[in-house]
Amino acid sequence: MPGSTSSPKRSKRRAVIIGGSMSGLFSAAFLRQIGWDVDVYEKSGVELVGRGAGITTHPELIESLIACGAGIENLGVEVPKRIELDRNGNVTGERPLRQILTSWDRLQRLLRETIDGAHYHLGHGFERVDQDERGVRVQFANGKVEHADILVGGDGIRSSVRGDVAPELQPNYAGYYIWRGAPNEADLSPKTLKEIFPYFVFYLPPQQEIITYPIAGFDNDLRPGHRRYNFIWYRVADAQTMKDMNVDERGVQHEFSVPPPLIRRDLIEQMYSDARDIMPEVMLDCVMTMKQPFITPIYDFTAPKITFGRVAMVGDAAANARPHMGFGVAKAGNDAQALARALRDHDDIDTALKAYNAERQPIGNTIVNHSRKLGTHMGVNLKTEEDRRMHDLLNSDGAMMDWIAVPNFLDAYK
Ligand SMILES: Cc1cc2nc3c(=O)[nH]c(=O)nc-3n(C[C@H](O)[C@H](O)[C@H](O)COP(=O)(O)OP(=O)(O)OC[C@H]3O[C@@H](n4cnc5c(N)ncnc54)[C@H](O)[C@@H]3O)c2cc1C
User: Fold this and answer.
1) Residue nearest to atom 28 of ligand 1 (CA)
2) Whose CA is nearest to atom 14 of ligand 1?
3) Atom of ligand 1 nearest to the CA of 22
4) N or C: which terminus of the chain has fewer CB atoms within 10 Å of its end residue's CB?
């Protein structure tokens, strides 16, 4: 972080960070830059690989990656334009827009390399935090106890840190979900490779969205022939239907989503059958070559504040937008950077956390509200005249190409 000098009077300060993914690692990198000691605690007992799939990049994400020291080496695949298809696979519109599409794995690898292994602790599930004016005492499920000046909650949409300090804040189901997958480039037909693989593609049947783009292959392989094709299919399901879909292959009910290998065969077969009914040949090719399609129900929430005494929330744990802008990791980076900047600029930690909250809580709200606007395309829960107006706008010719995952959308709110 430029100008990252802390006051010589300050004693060494320390943060405990919960969550070893995007926002946790960004926080660790930016806090270390201002001279803090940091330790990251991740619940998973094994390194985080193979989660998520494609990630749209934004200028804000690139800036955060560079500023925190992770860099952007071999970040992803660049597309030259967006195209929209009709039922027959004809191109009905296009927009020139260069964009780099990366993958969750690539970002995790770049960020993970910024932290010394001695300060990254797998297999530590946060349990609770106690705090007083001197700092925090953090209790982990395995019995470990840590002390620090602040606790950073970077543990995602279902944050246990938030659950401890603000249990009333719960994510809301948006009324729709996505089927996702990433077929291998090598498995796609020559027609699919020629007509859609190089592009960011939209296919928009009524109350559905199918969005596809190329990403790196296994182990960040960017060589032609070795990449993958990110496939996202938004579909409507009311809360009861979603609950039924969250019963796994063994009959076990899951609260939020079913782990990919346990998704019921009958749901996958139904998805294939629906795809055959509505999709152009090139899209159907993607569906039929996905190795393990999985379901992500869409949730969102905002919080009236993102700091709770000496606890600061970052990334999805602070506010979670629907994924229509592809901005979650950029937000994680920007939250972490703002937190470190506030702690650098204010000697008093409590004042710094107030400044962080004042800067980032409203931006979190704006991002979530913008994602709800874009979600009106799906035509569910349209409550206001503004919702219906936005729904109609997004359903007009070519509009989705101008709104979904476009760079610099926050400029409109400045
Ligand atoms: C379908 C979809 C598409 C998306 N597309 C994009 C995109 O194109 N671009 C983009 O920027 N973003 C995108 N996102 C959002 C992005 O994935 C998230 O915003 C990002 O992963 C948030 O990072 P995070 O570190 O805050 O949370 P997470 O990545 O959820 O990480 C939280 C971590 O905390 C750990 N944890 C949880 N509980 C505990 C505990 N009790 N103790 C210790 N550790 C714990 C978890 O194991 C996890 O590793 C998309 C999301 C979805 C669902």
Assistant:
1) 156
2) 328
3) 25
4) C
Q: Cβ-count burial of 236 within 10 angstroms (0-12 exposed, 13-18 middle, 19+ buried)?
A: middle
Dihedral, CA atoms, 325, 261, 190, 57, nearest 10 degrees?
A: 20
Structure tokens at 144: 């470990």
8 A C-beta contact, residue 114 and residue 69: yes
Q: Provide the token pair at 259.
A: 């782990």
Binding site membership of 126 for ligand 1 (Cβ less than 6 Å): yes
Atom of ligand 1 nearest to the CA of 101: 8
**Tokens at 311, concatenated:** 């606890």
Show the domains of the chain with their CATH numbers.
14-69+107-171+300-413 (3.50.50.60), 79-99+172-299 (3.30.9.60)
Ligand 1 pocket test, pick from 40, 43, 159, 212 with the greatest ligand atom count within 8 Å of Cβ, gives 43
300 lines ligand 1 (CB under 6 A): no
Count the alpha carbons within 13 Å of 377 in the hemisphere toward its beta carbon: 25
- Whether the pLDDT of residue 289 is over 90: the answer is yes
Tell me how far the alpha carbon of residue 392 lies from the centroid of ligand 1, in angstroms: 31
> What is the C-alpha separation between 374 and 398, in angstroms, rounded?
14
pLDDT single digits (tens) 119-177: 999 999 999 999 988 899 999 999 999 999 999 999 999 999 999 999 999 999 999 99
47 pLDDT tier (thresholds 50, 70, 90): confident
Task: State the helix-helix crossing angle for 59-68 and 104-112, rounded to 10 degrees.
Answer: 20
In the sheet that 135-140 helps form, which strands lie side by side, from edge to edge?
126-132, 135-140, 145-148
